[in-house]
Amino acid sequence: MKEFAASDPDETLLDVLTNVDGVVSVRDAETGETLAVSESVEELYGYTPSEFESLAVEAYSADVEGQDRDALEARFDEARREGKATFEWKAEARDGTEFWTEVTLSRTEADGRDYLLSTVRDIDDRKRTEAELQQYKRLVSLVSDPVFTLDERDRLGFVNDAAVSLSGYPREELRGADPGCVFADAESDGDEFDRIHELAGDPSESLRLEGTIERSDGSARTVEANIAPLPSDDGEYDGAVGVARDITERKRREEHLERFASVLSHDLRNPLNAAQAQVTLLRESEGVESDHLDALDRLHGRMADIVDDVLALARDGATVTDPEPVELARAVERAWESTPSGTGTVVVSDELGTVEGDPRRVRRLFENLLDNAVSHAGPDVAVRVDPIADGFAVSDDGPGIPEDERDDVFEYGYSTTDGGTGFGLNIVAEIASAHGWAISLSESDAGGARFEVTGVSN
What we know:
458 residues, alpha+beta, Beta-Lactamase, Helix Hairpins, 4 domains, 18 strands, elongated
């Protein structure tokens, strides 16, 4: 315990101060006279104890609304009546620095005399933290996507306005509730919380869930949520934070696309196959050879390509939900095997490595890029696939694409060749986006096209 400078040096007064931490002053409960001030007051306020004893309260109080002598006297009266009073007070040090304090007044008695002990603690850091938290809460409350937290018992805690709006339940009903009261996933295997708990040791990881929100009015919305554990000092699960998104309309569109794809596959591919068979029959059975049949073959082939491309766009989802390791060099090799490349060549770097993705769609990405190179540069094209920072690049020695057209190449319907479907590079962009990657176009060292895919996680 620090020593004190006291106007009354008797042992009784010092006994009162024993084991009291913080900046302490002792006053006569009846008269308000300051009897002692701890020496730590100099560190906090910049005044010596003897100087501080003689100061009026206004001298060490910041000029804040509601802070005046009447307000302080009301607190002292409360302590006299109730035995204790705690409040926050913004102080001002000798050098003009302002800071928040927490003041605790306690009434005590010694040798028949009543005293008021005033313990002052600096809470400026805490107040700043509270202000920052309030700001963050305000910002989160304005986020258009639902945001929520789970406590260590997996009960709902904080929910922003968007989460309240999506669920249809009042905020007070959501707080402390079991998420199962609104989140009912028909495909759930029941171990989502266990899977979230397992991530506690690595808060950089997150879990993606998809399910159904049962709203208070009985309606249902399909929701996608990404949930990550809250940081923990001891590695134990202390709760989680989640961001949800209403994907009801997207799921409906995907269902419509799936039905469209089924119709396209059946109603177009079957008669197309029949038409191709008729051309073959004319050639093989009837012995007919004609430029018109060759033209029909080309038209049938283009129609088949269009059907394949539209099916790929319709059936592949907007995101890759179950990625697995994909060896890029092998994916390029397999893509080149199915590319009508003639005498062309592809050089694949040994350092491409492995990425997390959908093997079929990664191969399709390379197929379309390689086919694009062959289509523009000809059958003797030379292609390189090299690693770059955060991804890989596919370059060719063809004529390239004019700079003013490079922003358009990934749009649906764009093609610079007569036989192009206008889907090829659009599909490449869709596949990259589904993996969370970005794709851009520039000029290769040979003057051809160079496609760079970035944001790739190894």
